[in-house]
Amino acid sequence: MTEFLSVDGGTIAYEVTGEGPLVVLAHGMGDSRASYRFVVPQLVTAGYRVANVDLRGCGESSTGWPAYSRTAIAGDLAAVIRHLGGPAVLVGQSISGGAATIVAATEPELVNGIVELAPFTRNQAIKLSDLRVKRYRAGMTRLLITGLLGSVKAWLSYLEVAYPGRRPADWDAQMDRIRREMSEPAKMKAMQKMGTSSAADAGAHLTGVRCPALIIEGSQDPDWGDPRAEGEAIVAAMPDATLELIEGAGHYPHTQYPDETSALILAFLSRTAEAKRA
């Protein structure tokens, strides 16, 4: 059942399932909490209370926010954790991976650990070597068109590249859902603003993350010419972080390879709990 939390500027929608230690899930731009539909049942079965959140401007959360930066999103996620009686392990994907970095560094009492899936948590610079990678060129071209024109068609075309090879069994239904949602002008505007927001705010906090962190990258993610190198750079900047690479995955490992992603998250949750007890 959807619940709503009022914060400064609007309302955040979320759904809580299960009982046990709190895990908060946050998706990427142009999507909704439905992206974790295959992961939530596995975490709940393993004994966790899972709060699956719609980012501001997405899903059932309100639109028309004054800002869509990682810092703004971090404030929403921190409010949800506080409201649910944290601390929590915070899982963020893409832009919300950057937000997870900020929450962990600025409000450490709310976070026992963070998992970042294909995160944009560092400022990006296009390198010549990246432009030689076909999937990167294809993904970036579609993202640029989406951002400049507010094109739903371009966004759906990007998703075709972001899910290389294996796709979820409900792929057609997923694409129909995203098409309907992103056809709402306010939601497209929110995505455009997220897409043009700088990751510098998150990058500035990488060295301040003192809790355990797990970075998960897909080996075929079109958002980077070298996803492993991006993950390694993030891990190198954090005091206590590890990197896992899911072979064949694109930008949405939790939807494309949910069993593999869930297994990595559950192993991290177990290690984090043991470290806290120690």
Detailed description of the structure:
The chain is an alpha/beta fold and 278 residues long. The protein has a single domain, classed as 3-Layer(aba) Sandwich (Rossmann fold). The chain is built from twelve helices and eight strands. It has helices spanning 40-45, 70-83, 95-106, 128-131, 134-149, 152-162, 171-182, 185-196, 200-203, 227-237, 253-256, 258-277, and strands at 2-7, 10-17, 22-26, 49-53, 88-93, 111-117, 213-218, 241-246. An eight-stranded mixed β-sheet has the order 1-2-4-3-5-6-7-8, with helices on both faces. β1 and β2 form a beta hairpin. It is globular and about 45 Å long.
How would you sum up this structure in a few lines?
The chain is built from twelve helices and eight strands. The protein has about 280 residues and is α/β, with parallel strands linked by helices. An eight-stranded mixed sheet has the order 1-2-4-3-5-6-7-8, sandwiched between helices.
